[in-house]
Structures are given as C-alpha cells and as structure tokens.
Amino acid sequence: MDMDQLLAQVVQDIEPQIGSGVVADYIPALAQVDPAQFGIAVALPDGSVHGTGDWTEPFSLQSISKLFTLALALSENDESIWPRVGREPSGNAFNSLVQLEYENGIPRNPFINAGALVVTDHLAGVVGDAADSVLDFLRAEADNPQIDCDDDVAASEAAHADRNLALAHFLASYDNIRGDVPRVVDQYVRQCAIAINCRDLALAGLFLARHGLRRDGSRMLSPGQTKRINAVMLTCGTYDAAGEFAYRVGLPGKSGVGGGILAVVPGRCSVAVWGPGLDKRGNSVAGVAALDRFTALTDWSVF
Amino acid sequence: MDMDQLLAQVVQDIEPQIGSGVVADYIPALAQVDPAQFGIAVALPDGSVHGTGDWTEPFSLQSISKLFTLALALSENDESIWPRVGREPSGNAFNSLVQLEYENGIPRNPFINAGALVVTDHLAGVVGDAADSVLDFLRAEADNPQIDCDDDVAASEAAHADRNLALAHFLASYDNIRGDVPRVVDQYVRQCAIAINCRDLALAGLFLARHGLRRDGSRMLSPGQTKRINAVMLTCGTYDAAGEFAYRVGLPGKSGVGGGILAVVPGRCSVAVWGPGLDKRGNSVAGVAALDRFTALTDWSVF
Amino acid sequence: MDMDQLLAQVVQDIEPQIGSGVVADYIPALAQVDPAQFGIAVALPDGSVHGTGDWTEPFSLQSISKLFTLALALSENDESIWPRVGREPSGNAFNSLVQLEYENGIPRNPFINAGALVVTDHLAGVVGDAADSVLDFLRAEADNPQIDCDDDVAASEAAHADRNLALAHFLASYDNIRGDVPRVVDQYVRQCAIAINCRDLALAGLFLARHGLRRDGSRMLSPGQTKRINAVMLTCGTYDAAGEFAYRVGLPGKSGVGGGILAVVPGRCSVAVWGPGLDKRGNSVAGVAALDRFTALTDWSVF
Amino acid sequence: MDMDQLLAQVVQDIEPQIGSGVVADYIPALAQVDPAQFGIAVALPDGSVHGTGDWTEPFSLQSISKLFTLALALSENDESIWPRVGREPSGNAFNSLVQLEYENGIPRNPFINAGALVVTDHLAGVVGDAADSVLDFLRAEADNPQIDCDDDVAASEAAHADRNLALAHFLASYDNIRGDVPRVVDQYVRQCAIAINCRDLALAGLFLARHGLRRDGSRMLSPGQTKRINAVMLTCGTYDAAGEFAYRVGLPGKSGVGGGILAVVPGRCSVAVWGPGLDKRGNSVAGVAALDRFTALTDWSVF
C-alpha cells in the first residue's frame, strides 16, 4: 500500500464532511478559525512522515496536550500519579464537577480536565513547569524548534479560566492539587495553547506506536506503560464519545477542541488529523470521518 | 410568663445535652473552642433583652452572617437579587457543587454557600464591602461598637478557602459572580469570621420580629419582605436539617457552625442560642434542644 | 371580618388568573377537565364552612391524599413510620429516583411519590387497604358518604403506572416496601383517584387547624403531632416549590396535580382551593394566587 | 507456542490468587459456590479447544449473556436497536437508575442492566423468547445440547428481581420497554441463569474472533459488526472497571458475577476463564489475573 495514495483516497472519501460541524467558540481566539481546512499526516516507525491537505498549518493543541503531560509524568517508570487519578471512563462532561464530589476529589481519568490538572500539578512538581516540558518534548520529537505557545490563545483562555480554576480549587480542597492553584492553571492553559501542525503532531506521537521509544532511540516508556496509555486513550480519549470512537474507528485516539486528533496504530504508525469543525461532543467531524476511512481502508482497527 | 424564669427552665431541661456534639474542626481556630459552654438570649420588641448562661461570651457568627447579607441586599426595596438565586431548599450539602451544575449556576437559595457568595457579590456591588456593611449593621442594632471580625478565624478560613474559591469561580463561569472572585471570597470569609455574643445577636435579629423595623425605628424591610425572609429561614436556614428543625422547633431559624442559632417568633421576640457542639448536619445540639424546649414551654411554634 | 365577603374579595382579586396554567395531561382522564373553573372553601373550628365559585364541584384529589395517609399512619401515636421515611425537602422532582439511590432507599419525605408509597405500604399493613381507609376518613370528616374514587381516573392512572411501579420495586429492593408491590401501587393509585370538592376537602383538613381533633371531637393526633405535620406540609407540601409557596403564602399547604390545594391556618381555619390550570412545578396557578391574597387580606401568614 | 503449555504456565503464575475475592452473595444459589475453583479454555479459529483446571465445571453465565443477546439482536444486519441504547461507558454502577433519569430512559450501553433489558425486550420482539434464543445459540456453537438454564438460580434471581423490575418499569415509563415488563424481566433472569463451562463458553464466543462466522461457517455478523461488538466489550464489558481491564489485559472482554469472563483476541482465539471470587467491582479476581498473564505471555494485547 502506498501511503500517499491512501491518504489521498481518505481525503477524497471524506470531502463532503470537510467544513461540517461547529468551530469551538468558548474563547474568541478559537472562534475565528476558518472551518474549511483539513489536514492529515501519518508517521511511520522509521521516522518518515506522509501528509496531505493542510497538514503543515498550525492549530491549537488543546486537550491533546493531556496525552503528553501524562506520558511525561509516567516517564522514568514513575507510577506515583495513579493514587491521585483513576483510569475509568467518566460518563460525564469533560469539565463536570459532579463526579469529583461523589468520588472525593479523585478524577476518573487523566483526560478529563480535572484529571489533567492533577497530572499537570504532579509534573510541575517534578520538572518545574509542565507547559515548558511539553513544548521541549514536542520540539524534540518533531525536530522543529519553532513549535510554540500561541500567546493570543493563552491570553484568551486565561481570561475564561473560571471553570478550570473552580476544578483546581475543588481538587485542592481534597488536597489533590499540591502546588499554587493559579500557577497550576496557568501552566495547564499554556500547554493547551500550544500551536502545532499535523506533521509535527504525528511525529510527536510516534513513541506510542514504537512501544515507548523516542525519535532518538532512547526509551521514554516501557512497552507495558505504552500499551496502558493506549488503553486509556481508547477508553477515555475522546470526551463522552469514547465508546462511539472505539466503535467507529477502533484505534486509541486523543482529541482536542482545536479540531485535532492524534491516533495510534500500535507497531505500525501514528496518525494526526485536523479539521476545526466539531460535533456536539467536541470531536472533529472531518477528523473522525477520516480516521474511520483510514481504518476501513487499511484494516488496522485493533478489533 | 417571666422570661428570666423561662430561660432558666429551658437551660435546666437541656442540661444533659450541653457539651454534646462535635466542635467544628475544619479550621484550627474553631476546633479549640471549649464545647461545655451554652448561652441563650431573648430580645423583645421593646428593645429589652434577657439572657442566661454564657450569653455574653462571643462566638463565631459563621453562616448566620448569610441572614444579614440577605437582609441588607433586600433593603430599600431592592429585589434585584432574585434572578441570581432561588428560594428552594437544596436537598444537598451546604457546600455542594452538584446542584449548581445541574441548574446552570443559579444557587437554590441564599443560605447555601453558593447562594451566599452571590448575595455577598451583589451587596459588595452596592456598598463596596459586604463584611463592613454587616459589621456596621450588627454594631448599630446591638448598640455595641466593640463587635468585630476575629482576625485569627478570618486568617484560618482564608487559608482553607479552596472549596469557597471553587464555588465562586464556578459561579463566575456562569457569570453569576461579577466582582473579582478572590475579593468576593475575602469579604465572605470576613463576614463569617465576625465574633458576637447571644445578647448582641438577639438584638441584631430583632428587626425580623418587628416586621422590618430597626432599633432606631427606621424601616429596613417592608412587612412583606420580612415575612419572606422568615419563610426562607424556615425552609432553608439549617442546612440539610431544615425539615427536622421546622418539625421539632417550628420557628424560622438560621444556624452557623460556630454553634450559634438565631430564631424568630414573628411579632414576639428574637432568640439567640449558642453551644459549640454540633450534630452531624452542622447544627448546635444544645441550641436546637433549647429552642425545642422554648417553643414547647411558650407554645410559640408558628404551626 | 365576614368570611363570605372575604372570599368574594379574594375571587375578585385573582379573576385574571382563573383559567391560567396548563391542565395535567399525563393521563387522559385529567386532561379533559375545563380549566376555567375555580372554587374556594374555608372551614372554621366550629365546623361551619364557607365557600364560593365552583366549591361544590368535585376534582381529583391526587397528591393531597398523601397528607391523609400520613395522618392516618401517625394516628394512635404510631411514630414507627419515621425510620422508613425522612422529613427533609428533596430538591428533586416529585417522582425522581436519583435521591433514593444516593440515600439507600429512604425517601426524603412523605410527600414525594417514593415517600408516599412507603406510607401507603405502612398503612396497608395496619388497616388492610390504605385507599379505603382514606375514603372512610374523608367521608366521616365531611359528613358526606358520597365521596368516592373516580374509576375512570383510577383506570387511567393504573395504565400509566410504570414510574410508580419503578419507584416501588426500587424501594422493595432496599426492603422499604414490605407488601406486594403491585398491590401497594394499586392502593396508591386509588387513593390519588378520589374525587372531592372544596367544601368536603376543607372539612376533611380541619383536624390540622384544631390541633388534632376530628369532627366528632375524638382525638386523631396529639397537638405535637399536628404541628409536625403542618411543618412537613410547609417545607415539603408543594413539590419543588415549597420555598416559593412559603415565601408567597406563608401557610402549611399540600397541593395535587388535579389543581387542588389544602392549606392550614393553625388554630383558625382550613382552606381548600381548586383551579385545574397548573404552573410548571405542578401547583394550581389560581389556587396559589388565591391563597396569597387570602393571607394578605387576613394577615394570617405564620411568619 | 504450545497452547496447553501456555495455559499450564498461566495457571501456575496466578495460583496464589485462586480462591481470592468474594463470591457473589446477592442470591443464595450463587453464594454457595466453592471459591477455590478455577478454569480456563481457549478456542482457536479451526474449532479446536484447549483447557485446564476446572474448565468443564459449569458456572452461572450471568452478565456474559448480555453479549449473546446483543449479538443475536444485531444478526441479519439489524441495527434497529441503536436508537434505544447507547454505546458509551457509563461511569455508574451496573444497576444504577441515576443515569437513566438524566438521559431520559436511554441506557448508556447494552452491558449495564438497563441496556441489557432493552436488548432483551428487542430480541423478544423478534424471536419470541430471548432466553431460549440464547440457549439455542450456545448449544449450537458449543455442539452441546446439554447446556441449560439452572432452575435454582433462576428461581433465586426471580425472587430478588426488584431492582431489575424497577429498571424495566422505569424504561417502560419512557416507552423504552415495549413488551410486558414482568415477562421481559423473566426472560432476562433466565438468560442470566444459564449454566455453562469454560470449554463451551470459549466455543460460543469464537464467532467474535472469526469476524462474525459461526461454527458451521454461516455468517452471523458482518466483520464491521463484529469489530464493533468487540469495541463495546472493551469500553463497557467489565462494569465500572472497563478502563482498568483495558489497561491490564488489553482485550475486549465481558464478565459476569458468576465469576466467568469471555475475552476475544481478534483473528486469533476466544478465551473463557472462571473463578468465583470477585473483586469489589464484580469481576473475577483469578480470571482477570489469568487474562493479564495470558496477554503478557502471548503479547496479544490489542494495544
């Protein structure tokens, strides 16, 4: 199978859905994005990367950053995050406080906002600044020092951070945020505001397809840890649509409201897609459609 | 009926319960209070006040302050607070966030923490500093300029304010806190930290028994507004035990975790009781028992 | 004050609201009622009764029956129902199952459907058939042997009983229904389907204004028990609008979706109103307005 | 790899955990099972089956039956069940009513009790008796006409069916059970009470590893449907521990409180394990441990 031909086929098949959905509008900086864009990139274990469409156009990383903070928190065989956050799907909205209250401040998983705040707090305790740590990792894996935080998005997020501040103070009331709350939220906001394109994102996620090995061949995670992150992605990676995503796409994936999705085919490749129009659960309409076609054409669903 | 004899009888009848219950321990400054204290005071419409026991010993006002911020917010016929807070019992703990989420940021009533934060925010918008406004009112009604905030309690509360900061940021995310969140919480904490004794509290609550008239004869609330505050006290004034309190005592009342309760017999008197030991719902064990005896002996239940 | 003149004044004042609201339509038999009807009756401690409008037109008792099953369950100083049902407002819809699950099968109060099913089950265990027991009581107090169950309404309710069957089986799973579930629900449905008019309802509720004495002078409840039922009515008697009702009307009251409300002025009178149009919380629009005017004109609010 | 040696290795490795956990005790018939039993069987695409331990000892199928009713409901390309039941993990207990109420009677997935009752109701509408249909299927796939319902377990379940009757009546109140409620619950109870051993269960689940083909080579489900059932198993198949199961085992699996688990390695094999001792989320302690070892030794995790 020629990967470039395959990606061209995928884009052709989903053409009618490009531009569908609604661009995230909770902050002005995201609401201005042109919805009629679409990009896809596939990174292979040898480090090569193929792409088509708007695959070199940067978009806002948003919740996909949660995947990288989790991986960084687990690196060097550090499993100490687990008493502070669960691994179960939540059945509630990504920014709900209800579950937290019923379960005494332990978020259900690392990919809802509450869980990600706990992971950011933990990582900050290890490395100092979680957002800088994510940036360094992305730049190294994509071999692109230009990747950076979008200051407009970060400022816009910071001005609309009441829900995340509420979550973080609530977690702190259960002693599950240990750092200074505004500082943890600031790092969380900056990691979400990183701008990246499909090419770089696919390369940055390749370690999950390579059983934990980074670009330079060094080991970031053990094969067991890598499998486990993939499992958490599959069960919890796409907000309240993880079941639907598993059902349609059949791959571990993590989405963000910037319209990006990073998916993993263990042992074979990582795939980054981007389309700004979202469905009502916050996942890219064109992105999910493209991954659906991708697994149909390759038969690379894990099921 | 001689009021002094009556109060002596009440204290004698509840003697076995003085010292029962558990002193609030969520902040160190409250946890140190000696539980074996008890005071009761009754203020009559003519401005006279009777008391017995530790009725001149100051205690922490805590949630009883919510009653005064509400009355001050409603004064001068200002009913503009109501679209921002309901008047229904909550069925949830006083500091729960669950209901807020299901009802889009409108607290069920002014006497749960979320509702009180909204009232404080509103009052701050009118008078500048809600805590100072409460202090001024208490001093005037009790004719005691010594009433003041307990700085140790305030500092202790401020150091444990994560739950209230979470509530306030959450409300702000629904645009239902309009002031600066940390500033609103600071005022809320200071109004809760006011130290007052039974004598002064009974006098300060007398306007509710006098259909809205203050000590100096000026009108604070209309008779209709006064009845309505009494109705909210009866249905919502004692946390998740309002039904039980209505059932046993049969009077409008507002309790605080400092162990105080202010109750109202419309047209007849206001009653302040204090006993630091709390039942599991946060109401003073000896205080509720004393009010129960008081209405039994006087037959002044509203039912 | 002349009571007939007073009632004429009340009706004149609320004229514009007669016919407002929406008739209950969850069963066909109720949906056919003409909304432009209104009646009011007041029963005095001497047994006399005054009324105006459609005060002799029968309507469906519905949830007001819960008040009579509770009183019958408590008669002869039997307080054994309380471990099985609470006395707190619920903060949830009258037929919600959520609270039951979080509180292990103990309904919050006797006036939500779950609580009423428990009371019916208890009463059935004492007297055999709870609905027959309510009928006997109503007939005796109103001195009207014609009062009866409306078989069309009962049949219609029975055909739409899935929600109540769900509640009852759920309670049974916590061992809080002891009788046969379909039989308990059948009795509950029949007590709700009783047809009664304002005159008879006011007379039937007079024992609550007479500190527990029945028409024939015999004691049904102690004065303390009577006060306590009045307290439960005030805090829990009008679905999720108990706070609002206390705030506007200031009397203990119990409403039903047939459009009736029974209110009590302790020591003075019982008042029955009826208007089929309901507000969105299930209380009669004209009925609440009439009681609001009644307490304004008489100054008989308990607050 | 020799499968018999592999299974012997698995059993040896988990030996210390056999007998751990607590036998289900909500019905007497299950509470009597000896916890110190363990069996495992693997069925290969060629129809051969390997096993060790108590692999021919029958146990109660319980919730694993939900997998077979779902597959039967989807057979012949019938996707009409999906508007009536979701495909998302629930985040609540398997028999919770809370989510149903917030989502208007649409169960989150087919593997919680509410969802399974809807599937049973649907299947009953197609085939007459859902439990008989499951029995026929199991007998055919396992080539064992002796498989049958355990009448003691069925009677015991029927006597403790209040929670399921509550769920079913609640669903019926949303028009999401269309058949007679007690009859649907009866069929549900009988399908759960089927007794089966590991050998027969592994054979019965082989169609999920064979992309939808039955023992006789006929097509039951399309490859796409089969993948989708596997996806639902992975995200929802092990109660509130689906994330943990995905994380540890990395295979689609469906568990039951009888102590059985059926897992699928797409394209390779089906695995049935049985150990009656359950963890606090209702999954077999020894069974999960065995599957964990199985994927570790084979490297057949899907991730």
Task: List the main descriptive attributes of the protein structure presented here.
alpha+beta; 5-stranded antiparallel beta sheet; Glutaminase (chains A, B, C, D); 303 residues; homotetramer; 45% helix; Beta-lactamase; hydrolase (chains A, B, C, D); acetylation (chains A, B, C, D)
Protein described:
4 copies of one chain form a homotetramer. With 303 residues, chain A is of the alpha+beta class. The longest helix of chain A is centred in the middle third of the chain and has 15 residues, at 113-127. Chain A has 14 helices and 8 strands. In chain A, strands 2-1-8-7-6 form a 5-stranded antiparallel β-sheet. A 3-stranded antiparallel β-sheet of chain A has the order 3-5-4. Chain A has one domain (3-298): Beta-lactamase (3-Layer(aba) Sandwich). Chain A binds chain D through residues 86-92, 99, 108-109, 226-228, 230-232, 234-236, 240-244, 246-247, 250, 252, 266, 301-303, and chain D through 86-92, 99, 108-109, 226-228, 230-232, 234-236, 240-244, 246-247, 250, 252, 266, 301-303.
Describe the structure concisely.
The structure is a homotetramer of 303-residue chains. Chain A is of the alpha+beta class. Chain A is built from 14 helices and 8 strands.
Summarize the SSE layout with pairings.
The structure is a homotetramer of 303-residue chains.
Chain A: H1 3-14, H2 28-31, E1 39-43, E2 49-53, E3 59-60, H3 65-74, H4 98-102, H5 113-127, H6 130-142, E4 148-149, H7 151-158, H8 162-173, H9 181-192, E5 194-196, H10 198-204, H11 206-209, H12 223-236, H13 242-248, E6 253-255, E7 260-265, E8 269-274, H14 285-298
Antiparallel strand pairs in A: 1-2, 1-8, 3-5, 4-5, 6-7, 7-8
Helix pairs in contact in A: 1-14, 3-5, 3-6, 5-8, 5-9, 6-9, 6-10, 7-9, 8-9, 12-13
GO molecular function, one term (chains A, B, C, D): glutaminase activity
Pfam families (chains A, B, C, D): Glutaminase
Organism (chains A, B, C, D): Flexivirga oryzae
